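User: Show me sequence and structure for the first protein, then do the same for the second.

Assistant: Starting with the first protein.
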Amino acid sequence: MDKPGLTTDATGRTHCAWRAAAAQYPRYHDHEWGVPVADDIQLYEKICLEGFQAGMAWITILRKREQFRVAFEGFDFRRVAQYGEADIERLMNDPGIVRNRAKIVSTINNARRACELVDETGSLARWIWAFEPSDEERPAVVDMAYWTGNPTSPASLQLSKALKKRGWSFVGPTTMYALMQAMGMVNDHLEGCACRAHIEDLRRQFKRP
């Protein structure tokens, strides 16, 4: 019998159960979710897509991700920062993305804030990774009840507050915890998942920016 939150496939490998929920999930779960990221553009993309997810299922965003990348020019935040009303209308008429005006405007706003932050500090990645929780703050084993409950953490609360203070939007503490999971700042593959040890190895080898 599978443990709560885990499932075993036909090959006998055990993974987080959500991996089996959609055809796009195995690759994302196995090769991307939790892998440490230090590239500014990739991090800006993750922040924006987690913001677009608010109130929606992640699979909806994942299915549309390639078109999001086309629509927002690869999430090059210096390009997106130049967008104006005509671009908002273009994006609102793009059926390949989530056509939510507030989230589109937020993506443009956050691009401008990213430019400011990079100009001030030199690196979006270095600034964000400064919020990584210490070993004492991270649980040794992920609690399934916590993992499924739209979690936040002291670190995600701090990151959310710091970004909001700088004028970012759609960066609430739950959204920022999802970012931390996705970018490898925490390893929330459940104990027993075949990917958990690999992600821990990647985190140990990762050179923080």
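Switching to the second protein now.
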Amino acid sequence: MDQRIGEVRLGDGTRIAYARAGSGPALVYVPGWLTHLELSWALPAERAFYSALAEGRTLYRYDKAGCGLSGPADRAPALELEDETLTAVIEAAGSGPVDLLGVSLGAAVAVRWAAAHPDRVRRLVLYGGWADGARVASPAVREHVLGLVGSQWGLGSDVLTDIFAPDADRTTRRGFARYQREAASAERARDMLATCYAVDVTALLPQVQAPTLVVHRDRDRAAPVQQGQALAEGIPGARFRTLPGHSHLPFVGDAEALCRTVRGFLGLPPTRRPATASLTPRQREVAALVAEGLTNREIGRRLVISERSAESHVERIRIRLGLRSRAQVAAWVVESGAE
């Protein structure tokens, strides 16, 4: 599966990049943290998760104003800017109703949009979200993290990766830390984090009319599970489902269980593709030989298979991991400890 990049403009001319993948009714992914459409798609674990969601749906993702492939923004991050951005992307998806999947801060953004546009939201899924940002962390912790991100963005991105993805492998952690830094400046990252802490959609929850599923990992290190419960309790008729795990990022940990839960609520069958990037034992063996610098012919001789079979294995490995070259395969082997 591949993604197609497009763009829309906000009222003030700010350029917003968005991506489409799959086919079917629209499922709009409302992001929580900093975004980068290209770097996130290149991260095998994240790409596998999105590809699994996109079976039977046209999955729309987007970069926030001032982030990733989107243009610079004169306005500071704010929920009003989030609302306008989401509206522009949904309009690009067509005039019909959409399913919304709000993740982290995106849960609050999706709640606001669903409450304001009840006729446009078919189903609403909220993952790892919160109703009141002031209850996500203590004032001392919030001040410390905001100061770290604003003054030492390199270290700050590593710390946030530890909080968001304690279950991730080395490759995913490095990739995520890198694309946080490349997605936005330190100032933009700090202001976006401040927006996360300032949000409060408690009063809007009773106005949501769409069938809603709230999903939360029971030991989420970034967002307390009690805040997920608050979302579900405030939305009429909402279902609440907890899944085991520490990681806040949806594509880290048991992404299969999360994907299966979301797809089931949307009325979709289990996906035919894994929601996590993995290799068969033979593929891992071939990948290790690529990392040694062997050619396809040399791999064939080592494994007693034809050169063409070796070439096919390498191609499948690249596709499965979302990588473009043998050099990237070799780097994945080293960083993931797959030798």
